[in-house]
Amino acid sequence: MPPFARPPPSTQYAQLSFPSTHVLLVTLNRPRDLNCINSQGHAELHDVWEWMDDEPSLRVGILTGKGRAFCAGADLKGISRLIMNPPSRASRSESSSSRNPPFSVSPLLVPMNIVQAKPIESPEWNNSAQASTSKSPMPVSGFGGLSRRKGRKPIICAINGLCFGGGTEMIINADLVIASSLAKMGLPEVKRGVVALAGALPRLIRTIGRQRAMEMALTGRAYTAEQAERWGLLNEVVSVGDCVVDGKPDDEAVSERVVGRAVQIAIEIAENSPDAVLVTREGVKLGWEGIGAEEATGLLNETWVRRLYEGENIKEGLKAFVEKRKPNWRDSKL
To answer: Is-contact 103 137, C-beta < 8 A?
Structure first.
């Protein structure tokens, strides 16, 4: 493990590894449960992404799943038990004062009168105007700490298999998405009487347009990777047809190929100026989150350009260009 400014957070539901010097790989590790994420998992992932943003040596994150699923969504069994047997007011009050982080319910949108919880405190880049989060049972960064995340550094989702519900909500807000050719994805919440309220719905319409977003959200259908790529949900589909043995996918072989491709792209990003990557990503996010083009450009210039031009990396990049050599980037201090 590389030396870090502070150790990575401990995780029970995900494995952390470092396939390259500046790349963090997070693998959801509940294969028997199709990597469904419960409240503890949301808290852990929120902390992991926050740690990645703060760790100077890390530049790109990758999220994938172990087994045959990327993430099949929320822990519906846990939600069902809660709705069928809601806690008393006394037990809610007692639990809210003792738990840390401040929520304990899987967030697939349990009625808000069941849990009154505060979101996890987050750094300024996660503090958008989210009026509803004061009573949300998930962190302000959303499902898996990703579906509403703003963050500083890019995250690539490597979809190795099934990707439904909250899993799809996460990929909609990811920076890049790579998927196995065997992957299936969708928002089946309406088939279970719940709603995709972790940030996917308003973001989905900006990605694939109103009619396609309506089709996906209202029918609850499952879509192939090829269909999702045509619609603009994916950057790339990785062919894994030769990983099928006797009609059954070799999960490890599929994962190795999809994650391998994601790592290649992560390294390509990490080889660029870390300062320029942060500011460029922020510019794209500002526009995608609904700010007008001119307002976003002005805000980017006011907030970041001076800091960028006063940094070491822009000087190194220009000097390397003149000297016709590869730049030696420094970890970002922005």
So the answer is: yes
Task: Quote the pTM value.
Answer: 0.82
For 4, list phi and psi in degrees, rounded to 5: -120, 160
- Identity (one letter) of the amino acid at 69? A
Q: Strands 23-28 and 14-20, how do they pair? A: antiparallel
Whole-angstrom distance, CA of residue 269 vs CA of residue 234: 17
Domain limits of the chain?
A: 1-271, 274-323
What is the CATH number that goes with domain 1-271? 3.90.226.10
Please tell me which residue, 239 or 123, carries the higher pLDDT value. Answer: 239
| CA angle in degrees (0–180, nearest 5) for 65-66-67 | 120
Query: Residues 6 or more apart from 118 whose CB is under 8 A from it?
Result: 102, 103, 134
- Interhelix angle 210-219/200-208, rounded to 10 degrees, is 140
Cβ 221 vs Cβ 187: under 8 Å? no
What are residue 74's DSSP bridge partners?
Answer: 37
